[in-house]
């Protein structure tokens, strides 16, 4: 029998519109980013963990919105910061 794990945080996913076309904090601060992540609870756009400032993770920890989706063209994966796993 195969077990399929369902992350309990998927209930926090909402239909969102990106609030920015770049990392919101990096744009304000004038700092660079590598890749972007879209918060699936509120639409915040933040930079990835490979970026110097890691604003997507900081948003998830400060606000409590656990799931992001890649905001890179051609990518559609989702990540839960609480469980450190793909959703």
Structure overview:
This protein has 87 residues and is an alpha+beta fold. The chain has a single domain (14-86), classed as Herpes Virus-1 (2-Layer Sandwich). The chain has 2 helices and 5 strands, in the order αββαβββ. Strands 2-1-3-4-5 form a 5-stranded antiparallel β-sheet. A hairpin with a 4-residue loop joins strand 4 (78-80) and strand 5 (85-86).
Secondary structure blueprint with pairings:
Blueprint: H1 24-29, E1 36-39, E2 45-47, H2 55-63, E3 67-70, E4 78-80, E5 85-86
Antiparallel strand pairs: 1-2, 1-3, 3-4, 4-5
The gist of it:
By secondary structure, this protein is α+β, with helices and mostly antiparallel strands. It is 17% helix and 18% strand.
For CATH, the homologous superfamily is named as Zinc/RING finger domain, C3HC4 (zinc finger)
Mean pLDDT: 95
Give the number of domains.
1
Q: State the total count of DSSP E strands.
A: 5
Radius of gyration: 13 Å
Low-confidence stretches: none
| Helix and strand pattern | HEEHEEE
Identify the overall geometry: globular
Question: What is the CATH architecture assignment?
Answer: 2-Layer Sandwich
Determine the oligomeric state from the structure. single chain
Which percent range fits the helix content? 10-25%
């Amino acid at each position: 029998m195969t077990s399929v794990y369902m992350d309990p945080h998927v209930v926090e996913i909402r239909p969102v519109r990106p609030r920015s076309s770049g990392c919101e904090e990096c744009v304000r601060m004038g700092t660079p980013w590598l890749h972007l992540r879209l918060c699936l609870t509120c639409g915040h756009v933040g930079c990835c963990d490979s970026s110097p400032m890691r604003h997507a993770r900081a948003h998830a920890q400060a606000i409590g919105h656990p799931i992001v989706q890649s905001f890179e063209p051609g990518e559609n994966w989702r990540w839960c910061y609480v469980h450190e796993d793909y959703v």
